[in-house]
Design a protein that fits this description.
heterodimer; A: alpha/beta; Rossmann fold; eight-stranded mixed β-sheet; seven-stranded mixed β-sheet; 18 helices; 39% helix; 21% strand; globular; B: alpha/beta; 16% strand
């Protein structure tokens, strides 16, 4: 697998160069995984993307670089120490660097000679393709560039790519791979597709990084998808609109980040109390409050599982990778619908913004839950007591049913009550769903050997880095290592955890937060205490290499 | 439609409360208009006025304080066959829900918003509301409310509302006419309903309102925004009641490229072929 970093100031075209490279690598069959490190500004600053590519799909990025494309001086100054001895640094002639690995290419001048200085990025792309040993011809270049550029810019950029290719030496062996027919998709786009596959009809949100790209992607597909996408005046409006739409029979979702979720908290309880299916996405970024707006963290877990006053059933699902983002989003809608509860999807900036090469999702794998309307016996009552605690759902506008919802404690018809007996029955009806959910939860992913001595425990987007860490550790140590990576977090699945923790000598939580929130949840629910914790909270994702290094350092032999 | 279609439930209001008249008028309006209770959705927030939906046997949604408008407009967006009416108070609509008030005027979904405006908080026992007159002493403002009162109808006009009316709970026939016009209006329609609070507002009593309200003269042109604003600003010794402003224009559904075609959302099911197409575009 190779690692390439593209760095420059905001507004210098880093993103365009990266997207073009992604399509060229995929065109050559390479699997790829691109993470974006952006500053919270529109112009200037220092942004970079890391493209990791090769024959297999990586689940995270790497600190060791095989190549750097530097569009500004800062990229050289900051990232040169990460460059492997055999790596290359490709840069324009205006940037200062004495390193022998530096390759100077007069990209701006070449592009200018071709007639458009803005094609300089494509010159760099061509050079990089050559450096990594990829084959290139004019037709292939045109094929790829058609996907990333407006038609009128394709011809000149084809020339620019070919010119860059001619000027660079071949340096690495090409790796190939199966990804030609795969999608290039971000975590948030995979999640959005999952919502559409689940039959979502109404999406509403207030813009907030890193959830905004869900709003934008869905809005751009709304016409074709036959859905309504409405930008709300604030997050309180967003969640209350989603609840109103769902109450009226329209499958609905909203998404935000921690700050917006803080505003949604009261209404989350409304969905629980009024038993209205609802899917809320919380795309985490480092807090508290505004925190580091464009970076990643996993610090909302304890908040999400306990958000809102009072007690009501909810489900919390963390997304581990791009496939999860699609399938688990469909499942979130299914769980919300089946149990008439709020379901919170936890993702984070790392997964939300990372693009990966992923095979087309299988539409048959998680079929959307479409219940037949239950027959009505006698007068319809929205909150009819049933054995399961789940009452048949009808919507306003149904000629056979009058449908009422109330945030006050209510009777079977949804009318306000205050008596003790009804309160107790209604609490039991709602809270009983937690027992049903405990039967539905999915056990965490087990990575590595059975009966391992060292067990790493993580959740959500730690999946890729943990998989890599386990492989690294098992390849260079006599000890056996394994990892459990949780997707479902509430109710907490416990079977596999209890078994694994029993046989392991050392259990270590690996999380992107300061306090070890999963560790705390596990201890609260099972009494299992961690022996050590590997935590990071600077807004940058742990890599498999870093986890392996810290396990070796922190765990006594 | 027979007159028992909208069965009333027992209420929790104080004897003499203006809400009784508003509830009765709402019931008679719905019956007169021949609306089937199955096709009507009454939405409330939290407060004494927001209990109104609870007392009529039709579809109801009583959600959170200040948050009546968002679920109401979303229900209408996904099911335009519903007649959606919001009944809630001045605290709920103009205080806690102020932002939704502003932006749903802009959104212009076809709902009727009936604000029971008694210029005081009732459910929490008598604190100042956004429309409480300056100087009125309350439990929480013992020296009198220091803040200038909010003028909801003037603000609605300034924000671009297409239908703005004022009425009084003590004039049920007038109120019924306002309710009916607001429900029939295609778009967001505000009726600010002045209402006495027998327990907590000893300043703006039934007699206070009754001696001041005056039906707007028939010569008023309800499409004249400046004239409407002048009427909106008149609130003192005389309080003009009636339709201040009514201007036809495209509502949310008429502006929405998909919904204007009659596209149905509820009951659509899912569309795997569409998702398949979107996936292929990312290859």
């Amino acid at each position: 697998m190779y690692n390439l970093l593209v760095g420059g100031a905001a507004g210098q075209g880093v993103e365009t160069t990266v997207t073009t490279l992604e399509y060229f690598f995929k065109h050559a069959g390479n699997e790829l995984f691109t993470t974006r490190d952006l500053m919270s500004r529109i112009r200037g600053g220092h942004n970079f993307s890391l493209i990791r590519f090769g024959a297999q799909l990586p689940g995270g990025h790497s600190e060791q670089l095989d190549g750097i494309i530097a569009l500004n001086q800062e990229t050289v100054d900051l990232h040169l120490p990460q460059l492997r001895p055999e790596g290359f640094l490709l840069m324009d002639t205006g940037i200062a660097c004495e390193d022998p690995r530096a390759l100077r290419l007069d990209m701006a001048q070449i592009a200018k000679g071709l007639g458009n200085q803005r094609a300089a990025g494509s010159v760099a792309v061509g050079a990089v393709l050559k450096l990594f040993g990829l084959a290139l011809d004019k037709a292939g270049a045109a094929d790829v560039l058609q996907k990333t550029l407006d038609p009128q810019h394709v011809a000149i950029n084809v020339q620019a790519v070919l010119a860059g290719y001619d000027k660079a030496p071949a340096k690495f062996e090409p790796q190939g791979g199966p990804a030609v027919g795969h999608m290039l998709i971000s975590g948030n786009k995979a999640l959005s597709l999952g919502a559409l596959a689940a039959g979502m009809q109404f999406y509403t949100a207030y813009p907030m990084s890193p959830a905004t790209s869900i709003l934008e992607y869905l809005a751009q597909q709304a016409q074709e998808a036959g859905i309504v996408v409405e930008q709300a005046e604030d997050e309180i409006a967003a969640i209350n609109m989603a609840i109103g739409a769902s109450f009226a029979g329209g499958r609905a979702m909203t998404a935000t980040s921690g700050g917006g979720f803080s505003l949604m908290v009261e209404a989350l309880g409304l969905a629980g109390m009024a038993e209205i299916p609802l899917v809320v996405v919380n795309a985490q970024r480092p807090g508290p409050v505004t925190g580091l707006p464009t970076r990643t963290e996993q610090s909302d877990l304890q908040f999400i599982i306990s958000a809102s006053q009072g007690e009501f059933p909810r489900m919390v699902i963390a997304l581990r990778n791009h496939a999860d983002a699609f399938y688990q989003t469909i499942r979130a809608f299914n769980m919300a619908e089946k149990y008439q509860i709020p379901v919170v999807i936890l993702t984070d900036q790392y997964l939300a913004d990372t693009t990966a090469s992923v095979p087309l999702f299988d539409m048959g794998k998680v079929p959307p839950y479409q219940p037949e309307p239950a027959p009505i016996e006698g007068e319809y009552a929205r909150y009819r007591y049933t054995d399961s605690g789940i009452s048949p759902r009808r919507y306003p506008g149904d000629p056979q049913a009058i449908v009422s919802a109330d945030s006050d404690e209510h009777d079977e018809h949804g009318r306000i009550i205050e008596d003790s007996e009804t309160r107790i029955r209604m609490m039991q009806k709602r809270m009983g769903k937690l027992d049903l959910l405990a039967q539905e939860v999915q056990e965490p992913d087990w990575l590595g050997d059975e009966n391992s001595e060292v067990l790493l425990v993580g959740w959500g987007s730690m999946h890729g880095p943990l998989a890599e860490a386990v492989a690294l550790l098992n390849s260079r140590s006599g000890r056996r290592h394994a990892a459990l990576v949780f997707g479902d977090l509430w109710p907490l699945p416990q079977k596999l955890l209890r078994r694994a923790a029993d046989s392991a000598r050392t259990v270590i939580n690996v999380e992107q937060n300061y306090t070890g929130q999963l560790a705390r949840l596990i201890r609260q629910e099972t009494g299992i205490a961690m022996d050590a914790g590997i935590l990071r909270y600077d807004g940058r994702q742990l890599t498999g290499e870093e986890i392996a290094r810290r396990v070796e350092k922190e765990v006594q032999p | 439609m027979n007159s028992t279609a909208y069965v009333k439930h027992e209420t929790a209001w104080c004897p003499g409360c203006g809400n009784f008249s508003i509830l009765d008028t709402l019931k008679s309006t719905l019956e007169k208009m021949g609306l089937d209770p199955h096709d009507v959705l009454l939405v409330g927030g939290i407060g004494q006025a927001a209990k109104t939906p609870q007392y009529l046997n039709t579809n109801t949604f009583c959600g959170l304080h200040g948050r009546a408008l968002p679920p109401a407009v979303a229900a209408k967006i996904v099911n335009p066959g519903l007649t959606v009416i919001i009944n809630t108070g001045d605290g709920d609509s103009y205080g806690e829900g102020g932002n939704h008030f502003l932006h749903n005027i802009r959104r212009n979904v076809d709902v009727a918003h009936f604000v029971h405006d008694n210029q005081v908080y009732g459910l929490t026992k008598g604190q100042a509301s956004p429309t409480t007159m300056e100087g009125m002493a309350t439990g929480a403002q013992p020296e009198g409310s220091m803040n200038s009162p909010f003028n909801p109808v003037l603000l609605a006009l300034a924000a671009g509302a297409g239908f703005v009316a004022r009425s009084f709970s003590g004039r049920p026939e007038h109120l019924q006419a306002m309710m009916e016009r607001a429900i029939r209006y295609k778009g967001y329609a505000l009726v600010d309903i002045l209402q006495n609070c027998v327990s907590f507002n000893k300043l703006n009593t039934f007699a206070w309102y009754n001696s001041r309200v005056q039906e707007i003269d028939v010569s008023h042109d309800p499409t004249d925004l400046m004239a409407a604003m002048r009427l909106a600003m008149t609130f003192g010794d005389q309080i003009p009641i009636g339709v201040l402003y009514e201007q036809e224009g495209p509502d949310y559904h008429a502006r929405h490229s998909l919904l204007q075609t009659g596209h149905k959302l509820v009951g659509r099911g899912n569309d795997p072929a569409m998702v398949e197409r979107l996936m292929r575009r990312m290859v």
